[in-house]
Amino acid sequence: MSDPLAAWRLGSEPYYQPQGDECDRFEAAWSRRLPLLLKGPTGCGKTRFIEHMAWRMGRPLVTVACNEDTTAGDLLGRWLLEDGATRWQDGPLALAARHGGICYLDEIVEARPDTVVAIHPLTDTRRMLPLDRASEVIRAHPDFMLVVSYNPGGSRELKPSTRQRFCGMRFGYPDAEDEAEILMREGGVDVEMASALVALGRRTRRLAGHGLEEGASTRMLVRAAQLLRQGMSARDACIAALVVPLTDEAALCDALMAAVDASF
Ligand code: ADP
């Protein structure tokens, strides 16, 4: 029989620079298949972490990027009409629960409330997933694990009735040395350039809360490094990867440009 999770298997080890003992803490949760909440700002490495851990655990990673249009049906599945007959097609959550994958719901808080409620039965000891529309209840595979991510700085909050069902791991931006290492590995820049970008990132993070919602993420710094590698000047790369995406306000734009000019 073909592997229903084949498309979700990771071919090679995703590079992940640990920030502390998070890999050990993940393994403890994994060994009991406890549902896990990864909390931290966008672009700080949560997705890369779970990709790396899924690879280490030898499990496929079924990822869903949640948004305001994500419904319970998108996660659970739907009936399809095929050659005049109807056929049930598992959604990503049902697929992972049935066949034993790690299901990662990225930015769970963005999904509609009925979606969030749909995952509740998988988070208690019964580990079940009712598929009302298919008149079926899936008992989760022993290798199924549910992981969700959440950015506490965002506009929406996760309800206590949901968050209390998870064990949590907090993520922040990597420390300077680790972040420079990531920029060298992912962006292909040398140590001097990586350190200058990291210093700029830190300057922008100090502006967070002073008009700017969040400073430059590690993801943004990686992109700046990648543009630099393509031959762009440091200034242009930072405008494209950091300044333009971070703000629409002229005053904040000036403050960010001043930070860029002070860095290069
Ligand atoms: P999040 O899921 O928190 O929004 P990601 O995991 O997608 O963020 O990280 C964004 C990018 O930043 C990754 O694609 C990777 O290039 C880089 N990155 C961030 N943290 C790390 C890390 N600890 N190790 C390796 N790469 C990282």
UniProtKB/TrEMBL annotation:
Residues 32-144 form the AAA+ ATPase domain. The keyword ATP-binding applies. Transmembrane segments: none annotated. The keyword Ligase does not apply. Keywords: ATP-binding, Nucleotide-binding. It comes from the Bacteria. Pfam families: AAA_5, CbbQ_C. Belongs to the CbbQ/NirQ/NorQ/GpvN family. This is CbbQ/NirQ/NorQ/GpvN family protein. It comes from Variovorax dokdonensis.
